[in-house]
Structures are given as C-alpha cells and as structure tokens.
Amino acid sequence: MTAVDARPATAAGALPETGTVLRFPTAFRWGTATAAYQIEGGAAEGGRTPSIWDTFSRTPGKVRNGDTGDIAADHLHRMPDDVRLMKELGVTDYRFSVSWPRVQPTGRGPAVERGLDFYRRLVDELLGAGIRPVATLYHWDLPQELEDAGGWPERDTAHRFAEYAGLVAGALGDRVTTWTTLNEPWCAAFLGYGNGVHAPGRTSDLAALRAAHHLNLAHGAGARVLRDRLPETAEISLTLNLHALRPLTDTAADRDAVRRIDAVANRIFLDPVFHGRLPEDLVADTAAVTDWSFVKDGDLEVTSTPIDSLGINYYSPSVVSAGTSESPSPWAGAEQHVAFTPAEGPRTAMDWPVDANGLYELLTRLRDELPSVPVLVTENGAAYEDYADPEGEVHDPERVAYLDGHLTAVHRAIADGVDVRGYFLWSLLDNFEWAYGYSKRFGIVHVDFASQRRTVKDSARWYAGVIGRGGLERS
C-alpha cells in the first residue's frame, strides 16, 4: 500500500459561488499530465531495457545530484492510488505517456505483453474512475538500442516509431480515444542533439536538424498507422512546445532575430505538419549547416498527414534580440545572430518568467494561422520550492497564482474565438525533472521520494474547485 494523505482533495476547493465565475465551455476537458520516465520507476522490470534517459542520467555530470528515474515516483506500483487521487480532484482527462522501451525494449520486433499489460491496467483504472485516458506515444524515452543505431538523426528511427505506434494502438485502441504521437519534438531534437543538455547529449547542429525532420516524419507515419488501426472516432494529435517570442526592441535587427528563432523553434514543425513544406527562410538560414538533402521525395506529404487537434505546451515567453548565443546552442543556424534577455517580473524555481500573456499570444496566433485546428493546452504549470510544514500541509500560493493567471489567459482566448478544447495541468506528481533530477517540483501532489508518500498540495485543492465549478471564481 502506498502512503497517501487521506483528506479529500476537494475539501478546500469546494467554495460557494459568490460573485462572478469565469465559466469555461460545458464540454471543456480538465486534465493533468505526466510522462513515463518521470514517474514510473521500475526501470529494469518486466523486460524493460534502457532508454536514452537511463544512459544519460548515469553519465557523470549530466543530471543534478546524479539522480536517475530508476524509482522516480514509483507509479508503476502505485498507479491505482494515483488514479484515485485524480478521481478525487475531479479531472475529466489524464494525459500519460507510454514507455517505448517498456513496450518494445529494443525498438524493434514484437511487443512485450508485460509492458503493455501495465498500460491496459492503467486505462482500465482510469475508465473505471470516469477519467478519459489520453495517450502520448513518445515523451523522449527512445530505446537505447535505437540511439546506438543512430537515433533520431537517422531515417530508420521514424519507421521504427510507426511500428511501435501500431503495437500500442493494437493493445489500447479499443479504449483510448485520444492519441498524441510526439511530445515536444523541439526538445528531443535541439536539446538532445543540438546543445546536449538532454539525452542523448549530442552537440551537433546538423544532427539536430536531421532529428527534427525525422521526428516530423515519425509523427506523420505514426499518425497514418493510428488512423489505420483505430476507430474512425479516435482523435489523433501532436503536442508542440511552441515558443512565445518577443523582440527586445522594435528595431529591424531584433525583429529579424525573432524571425530566425521562430523558424527553428516553431515553423520547423508547424509548416511541415500543417502545410507540407519547409520554411524557406529556415532553409536559407541553415545553408551553412545542411542542404536538407535528407528530406526525401514524399516526406512532406507524410509529415502533413491530417490530424484532429494540436496540443501546445507553454511555461514562459522568450525575449530575443540581435546578438550571439552561447555555444553549443539549440538554435541551429541562428547562434551567430541572436541573443536572449531575461524577461522582467516574478520567476519560478526554474528561473522562468511568469507571464500568462505569452500563452494568450500563442493561442491567438494559432486561431489566425490554423483556424480549423482545435487546440488543447497539454502542459502548463510551474515549479516552486514546495515543502511539507510541521502539520504535513503543503502550501503553494505562488503556484495557485500562476495557474489562475494562465487559466484566465485561456478563458480570454476562448472568448476571443480560439477553439481551445481543454487544459492539462503539469503535473500531477512531483517527479524526475530531467536534467534537474529531483531538485524541482512541478506537481500539485507532493511526493516524499524517500517514503513515496503523496500529499495533496493547496494547488490541487484549488484546481479541484475550478473543475467543480467549471471556471475561475472572481469576487
């Protein structure tokens, strides 16, 4: 049995409806989100083999304090209790990711049924709790054997992903109705292969650009397999961490710096996926790195396979100016032309600025550029220095303020005509925060990693109240 704070998660959120409530659409999807490597643990159980994050986290100096995801939040063994927590919160949807090396350990061949069985049980628990399962197929845990064969810079990895997508769809497609192919391919390509701060830790502009294209190709090929294997009613999506960009000044040089970053951060995915083309300025900007000959005939037709919705992840904006970035840089082709200035205002424990207007700006951009594509905010949240007080309470007023501000921005965007279908708070649990190890806490449920005790934070109770009343209370 896992140790769980027994107080109802809804207790402090069940406030009387006084004053004005900023109401969301009746069918609005209220969710929370996690990722397999960040919470599951059980790194060597059930036939699972190492992912690139297992290898990276064991490489000295790559992850703070030498932390790994070997145990993480032990969700593999405590999943029913974690689903019960979600039910108490009243969430309608849960966005989880499937561990590729747990399901297909070498990245090739048949699935391991023991791996699939965990996700079958998870889906059954969610449905039994009245929660819609939202499956993400790739949240950065590439099987190490595929990395050893070249990883995402190699074309074959996209084909391996499509095969894996078919295996998972075959196991869960009768019960999971919402599917996301990839989570944040920008991070996988440019942090993993560009500046090396994420797994697998390579530092090559060319490898990053090749990886970005093959991730787009994997998305399109995977979407085609899902469309073939799933019921017609299934929703197929992609999640991008689009960058909200602002020029430091209104000079032509700073505006051009924004254009360069927009090309390599946003349009490198938006254009192939929704328009079947590469951004011409991106190709020109990166001409010294590559001639893009790795893009083969027919690729862009595959990358632009129609999907049903777009997920966006947002945490903070970026202020860009003409200048030079540190090397190695994730900004392939732009390093010698751009610099970043910290935005003003309050900051989270990640040292990220708090600015909900950036989320509104991204949502309205999508309304204008992709008016027929429904949007889900698939990640939004903040890390703060949370701790349990002597009474065992975890008070996190800064997180509550952050969430309130960003949900207000979502409400404003809906009022201004953006087709936002749902909001997934990142994250349900404190977890392994990639290169930061366990030093940063994004969860609305506190995890004592030594005992694995869960404690519902004030922000979870606040979120439960928002869900219960269908909106944000205003006096």
UniProtKB/TrEMBL annotation:
Pfam families from the UniProt entry: Glyco_hydro_1
Keywords noted in UniProt: Carbohydrate metabolism, Cellulose degradation, Glycosidase, Hydrolase, Polysaccharide degradation
Broadest EC class assigned to this enzyme: hydrolase
Active site: E379 (nucleophile)
Transmembrane segment boundaries: none
SUPFAM superfamilies: (Trans)glycosidases
Species of origin: Streptomyces durocortorensis
Database matches in PANTHER family: GLYCOSYL HYDROLASE, LP05116P
The enzyme's E.C. designation: 3.2.1.21
Keyword Aminoacyl-tRNA synthetase: no
Alphabetized GO MF terms: beta-galactosidase activity
Name of the protein this chain belongs to: Beta-glucosidase
Family: Belongs to the glycosyl hydrolase 1 family.
Catalysed reactions, semicolon-separated: Hydrolysis of terminal, non-reducing beta-D-glucosyl residues with release of beta-D-glucose
